């Protein structure tokens, strides 16, 4: 196994800071849940119609993740990340002045595929889950700020040039441009693969049972994440009768606890077994799901949302690191592409939740998320420990 090329703490910090800013940019994808709720209100859509927005957006991951893994083999991980950020910056500008959201995920799909394996060039395998979790912590800060900025833009008397809640796209576009500048100026050495692969060879890796388990685990994690992000305000609106502007605080609660969970996970995963840590996380999510099923007052609902956010905060990092660490080194770009293709769960779950909500109310949405939690309980038994 190739060792990270960082030789001292100072050079590590100079390299990891721009990479972490890239994780912040990666968090912009989560504003799609906030955006879909405002679009639903503006256009009087049903739950199934509104949930089509995040579903269509996450469909990009299915299309572009594996080709991005192949692109990394040709031009390297850093250059791939830079391309993704350029696309993300442009895609943040377009929605500020219209109703198109799907372009944003083209850049984000490329970034998620290339940025996570880029971290492997800076961090040894036994610390990879912890470092990726800290990246998720930085990403969660951007996710948390999205509904706050959107609500500010929708209600503030401060001039937003007529953009309203879409002002958050412009703010994030500026941050994305700054991230491009810093990463481009940062030298990062990386190993180059000895062979090229095609799409068929990449998909064939799903024939590895452990890779397939990790792939489905990523699908469930993202489905629960996007699902909670989208459905939390709707549960508050349905059961408490609050307007969207007040109910959207539920999304803030979710991201606050997801952010705290990522920060604590980055510390704890350096000392705890990933299997024990993962099991505790899934149990917290299960408790949160049960509370959302039964809760009919504001505080219990907030507690349930918080538990899901806290528990789901480290699932991606553990599953992704498991897939990379236990794959052959010359297949890691392709495995990374497959894992990010698993973000397609952000398409499957919201669609299923939308139809379930139209048929049974928001309890139907929660039941769909419960299926993902049950799978993650099963996945816990398969986690490998060195």
Order of helices and strands: HHHHHHHHHHHHHHHHHH
- Which structural class fits the helix and strand makeup? mainly alpha
**Radius of gyration, rounded?**
20 Å
N-to-C span: 15 Å
Summarize the structure.
Helix content is 77%, strand content 0%.
Descriptive labels:
18 helices; globular; mainly alpha; 386 residues
Topology of this protein?
Layout lengths: L8 H18 L4 H13 L3 H4 L1 H24 L1 H20 L5 H18 L8 H28 L11 H18 L14 H6 L4 H32 L3 H4 L1 H20 L5 H21 L3 H15 L2 H11 L6 H10 L3 H16 L1 H19 L6
Helix pairs in contact: 1-6, 1-7, 1-8, 2-10, 4-5, 4-6, 4-16, 4-17, 5-6, 5-8, 6-16, 7-12, 7-15, 10-12, 10-14, 10-15, 10-16, 10-17, 10-18, 12-14, 13-14, 13-18, 15-16, 17-18
How would you describe this structure to a colleague?
- By secondary structure, this protein is mostly helical.
- Mean pLDDT is 76; it is low at 1-7.
- It has helices at residues 9-26, 31-43, 47-50, 52-75, 77-96, 102-119, 128-155, 167-184, 199-204, 209-240, 244-247, 249-268, 274-294, 298-312, 315-325, 332-341, 345-360, 362-380.
- The longest helix has 32 residues, at 209-240.
């Amino acid at each position: 196994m190739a060792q990270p090329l960082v030789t001292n703490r100072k050079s590590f910090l100079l390299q990891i800071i721009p990479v972490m800013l890239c994780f912040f940019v990666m968090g912009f994808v989560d504003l799609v849940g906030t955006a879909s709720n405002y679009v639903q209100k503006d256009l009087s859509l049903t739950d199934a119609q509104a949930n089509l927005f995040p579903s269509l957006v996450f469909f990009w991951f299915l299309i572009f993740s594996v080709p991005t893994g192949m692109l990394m083999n040709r031009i390297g991980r850093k250059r791939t990340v830079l391309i993704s950020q350029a696309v993300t910056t442009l895609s943040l500008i377009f929605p500020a002045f219209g109703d198109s959201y799907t372009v944003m995920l083209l850049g984000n799909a490329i970034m998620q595929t290339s940025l996570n394996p880029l971290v492997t060039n800076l961090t040894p395998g036994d610390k990879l889950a912890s470092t990726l979790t800290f990246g998720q912590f930085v990403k969660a800060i951007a996710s948390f700020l999205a509904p706050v900025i959107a609500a500010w833009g929708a209600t503030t008397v401060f001039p937003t040039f007529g953009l309203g809640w879409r002002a958050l796209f412009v703010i994030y576009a500026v941050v994305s441009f700054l991230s491009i500048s810093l990463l481009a100026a940062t030298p990062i050495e990386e190993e180059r693969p000895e062979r090229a692969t095609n799409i068929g060879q990449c998909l064939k890796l799903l024939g590895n049972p452990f890779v397939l388990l990790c792939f489905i685990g990523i699908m469930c994690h993202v489905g629960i994440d996007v699902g909670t992000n989208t459905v939390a305000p709707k549960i508050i609106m349905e059961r408490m009768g609050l307007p969207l502007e007040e109910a959207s605080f539920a999304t803030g609660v979710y991201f606050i606890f997801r952010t705290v969970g990522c920060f604590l996970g980055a510390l704890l995963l350096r000392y705890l077994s990933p299997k024990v840590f993962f099991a505790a996380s899934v149990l917290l999510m299960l408790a949160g799901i049960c509370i959302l099923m039964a809760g009919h007052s504001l505080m219990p609902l907030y507690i349930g949302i918080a538990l899901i956010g806290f528990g789901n905060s480290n699932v991606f990092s553990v599953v992704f690191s498991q897939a990379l660490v236990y794959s052959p080194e010359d297949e890691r770009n392709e495995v990374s592409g497959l894992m990010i293709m698993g973000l397609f769960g952000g398409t499957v779950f919201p669609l299923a939740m939308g139809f379930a909500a139209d048929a049974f109310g928001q309890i139907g949405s929660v039941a769909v998320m419960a299926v993902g939690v049950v799978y993650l309980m099963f996945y816990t038994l398969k986690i490998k420990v060195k």
